[in-house]
Amino acid sequence: MRIDAYEDPGTPETRGGWRYLAWLVWRQWPRCLAGAVLASVWMVLLAATPYLMARAVDHGLEPGDMGALAGWTGAMVAVGGVNAWLGMVRHRTMTKVRMDANFRTVKVVVGHAARLGAALRGQVGTGEVVTIGVGDVQTISTSLTAVGPGFGAVVAYAVVGALMLSVSPRLALVVLLGVPALAVLLGPLMGRLQGREAEYRERQSVLTARIGDLAGGLRVLNGLGGKNLVADAFRRDSARLREQGYRVGAVTSWIQALGVGLPVLFLALVTWLGARLAVQGHISVGELVSVYGYVVALGWPVAFLIEMGHQLSRGVVAARRVVTFLRLEPVPDEGTLDAPAEPSVLYDPASGVRIAPGRLTVLVTSRPSDATEVLDRLGRYTPSDATWGDVPLTDIPLPRIRSRILLADAEADIFAGTLSEVIGAHGRHPRGGGGTDVRLRRAGATGHDDPVPAQRPTGADAQAEVAAALHAAAAEDIVRGLAGGLESHVAAQARDLSGGQRQRIRLARALLAAPEVLLAAEPTSALDAHTEATVADRLREARKGRTTVLAATSPLLLDRADVVHHLVDGKVAATGTHRELLDTEPEYRALVARDDGGAGHDGGDGHDGGGNGNDGHDRGDGSDRNDADGNDADDRDGREGRDRRDGRTDKAVR
Predict the structure, then answer these.
(1) How far apart are CA 271 and CA 278, in angstroms?
(2) Cα 485 from chain centroid?
(3) Contact, 519 vs 362, CB < 8 A?
(4) For residue 640, what are the CA distances in angstroms to 142, 163, 604?
(5) What is the three-state SS of 430-446?
(6) How crowded is residue 56: how many other Cβ atoms within 10 Å of its Cβ?
(7) Cα–Cα distance for residue pair 197/404, rounded to 1 Å
(8) How does the average pLDDT of the chain come out, rounded?
């Protein structure tokens, strides 16, 4: 059977860890059956070697029959050759079992993560997902490699018992009772290993999340003076994980020590009993040799049984974590009503924000989280009573909302790939060819069925759309600065670009999608004043006639907005144009302007300088420059991070 990494993985079993492992076996039962048969024959032939040796001694060597001796010796050589081939095929088969289980688990986990969508971050931490992907998937797939040899070990154990019965019932009884005695001794250790392993995995996910937090916000933490505090917490978590790792290692070492030592004691006992029977004349010399060979051959099945128990104990712990993740449910979608056929008002009763269609609206608040919560409600990423026209958003099927309303998150993920793929231009510009695009319904669409494939523009039209999106985001210089242009490779999260470049790339991606309603949080916060003014003008022009909602405190954006909502404690306190609110709302004026008056938008305040080590379009405070060691810094330094959080901006009102 060929392994197809892209085939449908099937519906996973989520009723428990053992059931999930059984499902993985069932999904590839022909391969697992082949592995079990090959392992059984391989181990039985290991036991056949002592049998052939006994015959060579009793019928060839002892009576001096050289022909019989040569015949039995030849049989042993042939069995050894066949067994070597079987061992190779068995190993290859079980490797395929492991790979299938690995790919299948990855596909069901990634597929479920995609189905959870925006609900994922609210239900499980990043560290948990990373731990599943990095550790648990590998542990589960490795545990299945013990299934075939484990089954073969049981078969070989039964065959050796039968052969021993033909030699001596007393020896056969010792052999048949020996392995169950080993299981009784090792059983409690297996149970303890599962408990210790589960706790270790939990601590590992916590530490992984901590590493992600540190990597993502180290410069901000440093600016706020919190780096040492977080570092101390990381050291404590790391010490706890190390201690738990020692506990897991202690149990594992006992299992491995007993797995090696007990079979040796078992071998010594059976050999001693066999020697006594030979001295007493109850068995022949050849039978004594075969008994010793049988017991030696039993070492493989016993070792595989112990290893199977060890691997399955770890595998079921990892499977339970995967099952727990697969049990997470996305936000219920019970919508059955049609979305408004024409552009309509979006209204959020919780804040009082009313978004008129076809206008550029900006939300201003001293607490950025208040504005992003409004955007989440208007985009139906959190449950609310928000309406679209006269229809509650919760009553509209989610795919229809996603096809017309796009929420452009300021920290939206950027996957590794060409710049063309990153901004969604792949398949649009001439080198990409044609095809269909089901990501978003195109601008101006008024239908409200589920998203349907729409023909991608090709040729000159497609190239013009990409160029227009890059122009609106002031991102043409990024393309020109890369050796391969749109075909240049971009690292995951665009870490090889500066913070301002990343922000403009995200904005270009959102504009190229051309949704009917665009919701964006702080789309220009990492840009210098000159570039931000350029983006503000071009954004207004690019989105002319379509609904655009921004959460920002930048006077450059506010001055170009049709409507500004000033939020206080999450509620609309005032509504009007930017200049109207400046004249009538002192609190608004204090929020968006420096108390000391500052410099104007385009003054020589150092924001638009390009000689500070950045790309000339990012903030001149060095927030997006590369560190001296070549590592890309965060978008804002600690000072600007504090200013953003208390609602201030580095630019004064024009």
Answers:
(1) 10
(2) 29
(3) no
(4) 48, 80, 18
(5) HHHCCCEECCCCCCCCC
(6) 23
(7) 46
(8) 77
Q: Are 411 and 505 in contact (CB under 8 A)?
A: no
Report the pLDDT value the prediction gives residue 256, as an integer from 0 to 100.
Answer: 72
Phi, psi of 418 (to 5 degrees): -70, 155
Q: Residues with Cβ < 8 Å from 25, sequence gap 6 or more?
A: 32, 144, 147
Q: Give the separation between CA 540 and CA 52, rounded to whole angstroms.
A: 89
User: pLDDT tens-digit profile of 305-354?
Assistant: 777 877 888 888 889 989 999 998 887 788 889 989 899 999 999 999 99
CA dist 160 and 49 (Å) reads 11
Sign of CA dihedral 247, 212, 409, 347: positive
Task: Write out pLDDT tens, residues 154-197.
Answer: 888 788 777 777 778 877 777 777 767 766 776 676 667 666 77
Give the alpha-carbon dihedral of 127, 133, 135, 141, to 10 degrees. Answer: 160
For residues 367 and 365, give the distance between their C-alpha atoms in angstroms, rounded to a whole number: 5
In angstroms, what CA-CA distances link 405 with 114, 187, 398, 515? 18, 56, 10, 6
Distances in Å between the Cα of 411 and the Cα atoms of 199, 216, 486, 609, 634 are 32, 11, 22, 25, 11
Cβ neighbours of residue 391 closer than 8 Å, sequence gap 6 or more = 337, 338, 339, 340
Amino acid at the residue 328? L
